[in-house]
Write a structure and sequence with these properties.
This protein is mainly alpha-helical. 75% of the residues lie in helices and 6% in strands. The chain folds into 3 domains: 44 residues; 91 residues, Receptor-associated Protein; 251 residues, Type II secretion system (T2SS), domain F (Receptor-associated Protein), CATH 1.20.81.30. The chain is built from 16 helices and 3 strands. It has a 3-stranded antiparallel beta sheet with strand order 2-1-3. Helix 2 crosses helix 3, helix 8 packs across helix 16 and helix 11 crosses helix 12. The termini are far apart.
Length: 398
């Protein structure tokens, strides 16, 4: 389905009514066949560019609305068609219409979602399949929407906490570079007319500015090289394992990343357990939905140990990245038969803890970054104006 294209069309119905819309098709001929299957006479058909990416919030909003419509007693196909007519994004209108047509043709909802792997993760497909088998499709849609929304909010919170220092330090570096390359040369010309020795701080800053101007190209390359190297290494499996494991050992970022991943894993496992999915299948869904090769391999190893007959808590313990609290609660849930409840408690615990870590990081970094940027810029300002004060003293002595 990745080769599909979005097409805009205008056509006449058998009654002569003019209609227009969008649809997904591989080529023009396939698009015309789809219109003919709808008993439409095409008047215009043009390929449309997909200007927007598939947004995660649209996915969980879709399933939240589906749960409400199904609860109201509407059929799934009619609900999808209704949502397609109301959706503000053209590509989603075409997608929802395509799903409704697949359902009308006798295709299962989970099979229809499989045709769109770039939109719906394996977790969506697994949950909808469970809903179809158990007759609890409405409940599965509601639980899935809640889980995805919570994970999206948590990911946004963590990214914001980690992005803030980078933005502040980048702005500070740009200000310093502008002052060194644009402002200091103007002051240097003034200083030459003083015929008096410059203060030590000013001489250091002037030498630093000269060094920056003389080696600006090399310094830019040195600053960009780590980003270029990391971009090229991102696809290397060995580097992915190493970097993702090393991040966990960092003082603050490690706690954030670990909490986010554990929250996602336990939420998926809890969600699948509540829906009646076997634990091994839930592990597979968690493995497919979690990002990062290192975490995928950890869950794969856990699944292999469970398949071989090891207890779940023992398999988690051997992974070496789960906290003692996680292992203890999972062991208790496994013995008492309340594993779904324990997994839900763990998901909620790590979710709240990660939100708290993100808030604490932001409150800790704000004053620290203000001090760092203030010292840097304040030093430059003092170094620029200090010779002017010394000039007044020299003129008074003269």
């Amino acid at each position: 389905m990745a080769a599909n294209h979005l097409w805009r069309w205008r056509a006449l119905t058998l009654e002569g009514e003019l209609q227009q819309g969008t649809l997904w098709a591989v080529d023009r001929e396939a698009a015309l066949n789809l219109l003919s299957g709808r008993a439409l006479c095409p008047l215009a058909l043009s390929r449309s560019l997909m200007l927007q990416k598939w947004q995660p919030q649209h996915c969980y909003e879709l399933f939240r609305q589906l749960a409400a419509l199904l609860q109201a007693g509407l059929t799934l196909a009619y609900s999808l068609q209704m949502l397609a007519e109301q959706h503000p994004v053209k590509q989603w209108q075409a997608l929802l219409s395509s799903l409704a047509e697949d359902l009308s043709a006798g295709c299962a909802f989970s099979d229809a979602l499989k045709k769109w792997p770039e939109v719906f993760s394996p977790l969506y497909i697994s949950m909808m399949k469970t809903g179809e088998l158990t007759g609890k499709l409405e409940e599965c849609c509601r639980l899935l929407a809640q889980q995805q929304k919570s994970q999206q909010q948590l990911s946004a919170k963590v990214k914001k906490a980690l992005r803030y220092p980078a933005i502040i330090l980048t702005l500070a570096a740009v200000v310093v570079l502008a002052m060194v390359t644009l402002v200091l040369p103007e002051f240097a010309g003034i200083y030459k007319t003083f015929n008096t020795p410059l203060p030590l701080l000013t001489r250091w800053v002037m030498e630093f500015a000269d060094f920056i101007r003389q080696h600006i190209i090399g310094l830019v390359f040195v600053m960009l090289f780590p980003f270029i190297a990391l971009r090229s290494l991102r696809q290397h499996a060995g580097w992915q394992r190493f970097s993702q494991r090393r991040v966990l050992s960092l003082p603050v970022m490690g706690a954030l990343v670990r909490g986010q991943k554990l929250s996602q894993i336990y939420t998926v496992l809890s969600l699948t357990q509540q829906a009646g999915i076997a634990f091994l299948q839930g592990l597979e869904s968690a493995q497919e939905s979690v990002e990062g090769l290192f975490w995928k391999e950890v869950l794969r190893d856990i699944r292999e140990r469970v398949v071989q007959g090891a207890p779940i808590w023992s398999s988690l313990s051997e992974a070496g990245i789960f906290t003692p609290l996680c292992i203890q609660l999972v062991r208790t849930g496994e013995i008492s038969g309340a594993l779904d409840t324990m997994l839900a408690n763990l998901a909620r615990h790590h979710n709240e803890q990660t939100f708290q870590h993100a808030d604490n990081l932001a409150s800790l970094l704000e004053p620290l970054l203000l001090i760092v940027t203030g010292v840097i810029i304040g030093t430059l300002v003092v170094a620029m104006y200090l010779p002017i004060f010394h000039l007044g003293d020299a003129m008074s002595a003269g």
